[in-house]
Amino acid sequence: MNILIKNAKIITPEKIIEDQNLVIENRIIKEISENFDKTKKYKIIDAEGDYISPGFFDTHIHGAGNGVFETADKDLFTEISNLILENGITTFLPTLLCNETHIKNVVKQINGHPEIREHIAGIYIEGPFINPEKKGGINPDYIRKPDLDYLKKIIDISEGHLKMMTIAPELEGIDKIIDHLSQNDIIPTFGHSMTDLNTALSKKGVRNITHLFNAMSGISHRSPGLAALPFIDKEIFVEVNGDGVHIDNQIIKMCFEHLNPERIISITDAVISAGMPYGDYFYDTDKKVSSSERGVRYKKNDVLIGSSYMIPDVLRNLKNNTNASMNELINSVTINPAKMLSADKDRGSIETGKRADLVIFDNNFNIKEVITS
Whole-angstrom Cα distance, residue 251 to residue 280? Predict the structure, then answer.
């Protein structure tokens, strides 16, 4: 189907274009132009002055809609994914902990959903080679010391879907883990760590930081930890949870003012209650959690384990609490994660030849229409 979108504020990585048409042919972006081929038939979409951007990415999302990827059956996996897509998120990474049964289930569901698989950029595993002192909400049973043979097993059962893995740089033997991940086109990402800054700086081949400030050594003027790394190494990508709970809004504002804007990746870290009313839910099969304005926490010990926000909610909070431009906000959920994932050749920006994964939204990030390729 050919589509022509008119009266839209078209967001590119560098600017916002008005008074132009966005032309899509055969699910691919053909051009941004005042004119179009009037001999062809187009479905006309009038954006009525709203914004249009590339479809959003969420590179760190555990679940939504009263379900999590780890244990979802076929129908629930579809429901979770459809809710994510309805929120304008057209590329995402099911995020899970290192439980072999759960990994096999997610692989099975991805392979069994070819229409959804197009929107899944891979699996993201938090652990198992992390520091138990910074486990956060991770089950201790899913934490191990670096073990190359075990990593090879996890890669094998992932059947080519494993894309990112959180590791702690201070652990003995982690260099072999980093090397093997990189050799298999899997992105090593630092997190759940007690490392000092110099140790983190000494490790090569790591491209990303898992949920900055959360479950990691912080910034001290005498003994800086992992949280200082992206302020020093301006080339590393860094996940920033913009819900205002995982990181105070003043610190989020500081991040957008002092980190490399081309490396910030806004995430949700959404869990079972995302897109649902506040209340109590069961997570990780038998653990009761409570969702509120304080995030999602275990009822037993009040440990923060995730968010109920979706990407439009995050963008809304960022708009209200930072000085970031619209381009910077949208880049943090489109071209930046696309580059981190090496997926920017066919998605992540509105350019000729790229996939027509697009989202139309108003000034307050209310979704009006989602277009997928």
Answer: 29
**Quick one: 194 and 323 in the same domain?**
yes
Residue 267 pairs in a beta bridge with 241
For residues 17 and 10, give the distance between their C-alpha atoms in angstroms, rounded to a whole number: 5
Q: Which two tokens stand for residue 349?
A: 């920006």
Q: Which residues pair with 9 in a beta bridge?
A: 51
Structure tokens at 39: 């001999």
Burial of 77 (0-12, 13-18, 19+ CB in 10 A): buried
Tell me how far apart the alpha carbons of residues 154 and 62 are, in angstroms, rounded to a whole number. 18
Structure token digits, residue 261: 């804007």
Tokens of 343: 């997926």
Domain that holds residue 24: 2-52+358-371
State the amino acid at position 110 in one-letter form: I
By the 8 A CB rule, do 291 and 307 touch? no
**Is residue 32 located within the same domain as residue 176?**
no
Residue partners of 286: CB distance under 8 A and separation at least 6:
none
- Specify the number of domains making up the chain: 2
Does the predicted model carry a pTM greater than 0.90? yes
Element (H, E) at 360: strand 358-361
Name residues whose C-beta falls within 8 Å of residue 198's C-beta, 6 or more positions apart in sequence.
none
Separation between Cα atoms, residue 38 and residue 21, nearest integer Å: 13
pLDDT digit string (tens) for 198-257?
A: 999 999 999 999 999 999 999 999 999 999 999 999 999 999 999 999 999 999 999 999
